[in-house]
Amino acid sequence: MATKSGGRFTGQLGFVLAAAGSAVGLGNIWRFPYLAAKDGGGLFLVIYLFLLVTFGFTMLAAELSIGRKTRQSPVKAYAIVRPGWGFLGVLTFLVPAIIMTYYSVIGGWILKYITVYLSGAGQAAADSKFFGAFITADSAPLIFNLIFLGLTALIVYKGVEKGIEKSSVFIMPVLLLVVVGISLFSLTLSHTDAGGVTRTGLQGLKVYLIPNLQGLTFSSFLQILLDAMMQLFFSMSIAMGIMITYGSYVRGQVNMNHSIAQIGLFDTGVSVLAGLMIIPAIFVYAGMEGMASGPGLMFVSLPKVFNAMGSIGVFIGLIFFLMAAFAALTSCVSVLETLTATCMEILGSSRKKTTLILTALYAVASTVICMGYNRFYVELPLPNGSKAQLLDLMDYISTGVLMPLVALLSAVLIGWLVKPRWVIEEMERNGERFGQKKIFAFMIRYLCPPIMVVLFVKATGLL
Q1: 183: which of 2, 135, 274, 317 is 20 to 30 A away, CA to CA?
Q2: Going by C-beta distance under 8 Å and a sequence separation of 6 or more, which residues neighbour residue 205?
Q3: What pLDDT sits at residue 462?
Q4: Under CATH, which architecture does the 12-373+413-434 domain have?
């Protein structure tokens, strides 16, 4: 049965690299390191890895199985799994629809930094005011956003095999090599500050890997758990409909058990290595104070680190932001592909026409988000007590509210209504052995729902 989006992955390698490309993105390169730095280094790492091999594996298996078994996009897939549950497909569709409004904006920021380092002006990027001046400018962020959106649209326009699979097979191995290279380089760094204190990359490695339990309370532990789970959602493309869409492109003979393990290994490896290449470098040149820079770690703190490296810093900075651009592009492609596949299925339109229409709509939407830092600047109070600009608001709604809700309802649907056997049968297609089926059944029924309830309540400020 062919997918209505009109394409299939040619085999297991193409599928794994495309799915890993969706999973490996800004969540790995940007979000994971700053959360690890904020949440006690090794403590965050341990919690994240535990959630990955339990919850992440469970939800990834469920979503890919739903996609391959129904051969439909998320909106229609859930209605096939269980009549009357089409609303869950609509909720799932809203997640990438909202994320797409701002993902290309951040991608545009990365492109700007690439041009800065290409021109040899890395010292300018090290100025603390550089990033703020750029995102509040009238035209520059809009132009870079549209360029990044255009690159994303071009890949989706070309289709599954010629666009998504072909680009992923090239980008992902290059990305992995760059991440490994910079990670090893970070461990060799050493710097003596004005006070005569020498810090090394290996000392930064200890900060990253050894759990910091100082001042840990139940509330702070719950926040770290929430951060790790939100990171897992964002990083693994869970509860976005993306893996259901990609699953619908997977051929029947592909071994799903092996594929899921490979996707998880690739995604986690890049996340851990991203922390390894960023946190030791930040520690060496900025100490523990630099570790507390939060979301600004990538765009404010790292350029200062590259500048402190001297002449080689310009080259390292360029390579880093090129790598970040590759990661952002593969993820943004997966988001737009999910939206495109769903709209093609519902409207019966062609891929090219659908891609062009969606690109035009998101050119307008992302422009509004860009202007949220200047002409449309607002500070909106969120239920969790924080304040948000337009981009922060979109991120909060998609990752903080909708993703936990979608994951909760999906776990209830698979675990209690259609029963875990529905997924297990798909995982054991062609006589494959699903060795983790007992763990899967236990997780999807008894652990995933209560965890999602707690995280949803915490994220919405009710706890």
Answers
A1: 135
A2: 187, 276, 280
A3: 65
A4: Orthogonal Bundle (1.10)
